[in-house]
Amino acid sequence: MRSFNKIFLIITLLIAAIFTSANFLIFSFDDIDGRPYRVEINRLTKLIEKDSFSADDLSDCKYITDIVKYSDSPDSFYGGSSDYTIRVINDELYRFNYTSSADITRNTAIIANITLGIMSVVTIVIMLYIRVKIIAPFERLTNIPYELSKGNLTAPVKETKNRFFGKFIWGVDLLRENMEEQKKREFELQKEKKILMLTLSHDVKTPLSAIKLCSKALSKGLYSDKKKQLEVAESINRKADEIEEYVSQIIKASSEDFLQLEVNDSEFYLSELVRNISLYYREKLKLMHISFEVSDYGDCLIKGDIERSVEVLQNIIENAVKYGDGKHIEILFSEEDNCQLITVRNSGNTLPDTEILHIFESFHRGSNADEKSGSGLGLYICRQLMMKMNGDIFAKTQNGFMNVTCVFQKT
User: Fold this and answer.
1) Residue predicted with more confidence, 41 or 162
2) Closest CA to 99 of 67, 63, 68
């Protein structure tokens, strides 16, 4: 804002300087004696004396507006509101009506000042509009990313109907709400897991203590009767089964879906999905010198969430960029059993066929992921989203190409 205020001040001073310079130049052209019309009167007088005066000579004059002969209008010869001077030429009175240089200069100055004034007002209004409608709203947004990065998610973003930032502000506030909601869900999830672990840990202690006690008794030979030894062994086995059950509960709790993925079931055109993907990746992959092609397709209406579908294809293409050879990526289309199939194919497949079935599992990373960053959740999220949209996803290798296919239901 300070930088803009400096620019605004500089422009205001520049406008004032232009005003001053323009008026100085206009008035500086005025003759020093202030009576340049006399030059024209003398020239016209000589022409009249020689009887060679014509109307064209008067039209060439800058200051003389009219010449009146006394014999033509004696009654009004000395009247009128304009400035004039009288000369005797060839024994005849002539009246020369003129406009002084000051009047011309004043009129020129008025026109110039009006023109510059209008331009200045327009410039200032535009600058003020930019300041109020663009700079000021953006100034209020400058601290929002910093506050979000610090985890300050409670303060809402003030809504506005600004045509430039209205949708952006709404999106930032929606992002803040989603982050806040995700933070709450994560807190609740961590709380539930901690309670579960504490409960199971406490429950495990009882059978574990019994096993240790029985094992200690057997090791010291406290039970000489074989029947009693058998009962103790069976008791140890039962306690071990209890511990195994608790361990199963822990594994089940750990393997439950930890991502709460929401899908808005609706309908959208295939062309809309392809357009969103193409607009982004054509430029990005061109900069990376990766060949990118989108094959021909027939537009149709398919079921699902357009935003989630874009997310799925983006994850697949990002994997193709990361694990392919960086030469070629292609999107193919086909139809099967009232379903629309979209396949992302990339060259340079380095994943063994034995790992294809596991690439959609959570936290699974293939053998080709060495020294490449990632969490092993990208394709897992794709599978969860496709299942929530009543679709499917699968992968296969063919002739050195990796093919990942999304199956969408058609309406």
Assistant:
1) 41
2) 63
